[in-house]
Amino acid sequence: MRVLAVTHGALVGPELFADVLAEDGHELHEWEIASGGARPTGEHDAVLVFGGKQNVGEEREYPWLHDEYAAIKRWTEDGTPLLGVCLGAQTLAHALGAPVTPVERPLAGFYETELTDAGAADPLLGVLPRSFEALNANGYTFAIPPGATELARGPVNQAFRFRSAWGVQFHPEVRRDQALAWFAAEGRSLPKPLAELEQELEAKLPAWQEHGRRLCRAFLRQAAAST
Any bridge partners for residue 161, and if so which? Predict the structure, then answer.
């Protein structure tokens, strides 16, 4: 399959998902929308939309967000399988008419997360345990869009599905150095010391990355079934 990855900066790329796509023989094409790069030509069988430092509501500073909302709306209307991660989940929620708002305190590190009954039965989220610790790195959160189904909840809404599109607030694609760079950039706004977050990553990231690979492959199976 041909898979399009929409990215918003150097530190928020496909990471582990790129490895899975390569291992399974899929083509990955990146669209660095935040830098004004041109969208890759040709049809794509599935779309991944990753995170970023930008936020819904900052369209004056990042006018390309309007292009992203419009593209997401087209993909959801066309039935293109889509997975939005963090900012990608928030732009998906916004495109579907749901509020995206700041959290009271930024999240950084692992947080207890639980699948809803619908999440446990979902072909994508259902590959995860019913309860798990998810890696979050976000200062905003989404409401569940009208007509969408809540799939997981934690300190914030963690996942939803709308037709063939999924949004997850947590980061299943993350690598260690990538996450540490995010946390270091946040500095004093972190909910816990950077050294503590580094220890947490050392202890919990390997198991979390296995969940991430499993989630990615489940999405690819869903995309392949719809082509």
Answer: 149, 166
For the chain of 227 residues, list the mean pLDDT of each consecutive stretch of 10: 96 96 98 89 95 97 97 97 98 98 95 98 98 97 98 98 98 96 85 94 98 98 93
Distance CA 208, CA 172 (A): 7
Say which CATH number the domain at 36 has. 3.40.50.880
pLDDT value at residue 35 = 87
Number of domain units in the chain: 1
Q: Which of 226, 214, 224 is nearest to 168 (CA)?
A: 214
Residue type, 154: G
Q: Name the strands in the sheet holding 100-115, side by side, starting at the edge strand that comes first in the sequence.
A: 27-32, 2-7, 46-49, 82-85, 165-168, 157-162, 149-153, 100-115, 131-142
Residues of the domain holding 41: 2-226
Question: Model-level pTM greater than 0.85?
Answer: yes
Q: Distance between CA atoms of 227 and 225, rounded to whole angstroms?
A: 6
Q: How far is CA 140 from CA 52, 131, 198, 223, in A?
A: 11, 22, 22, 28
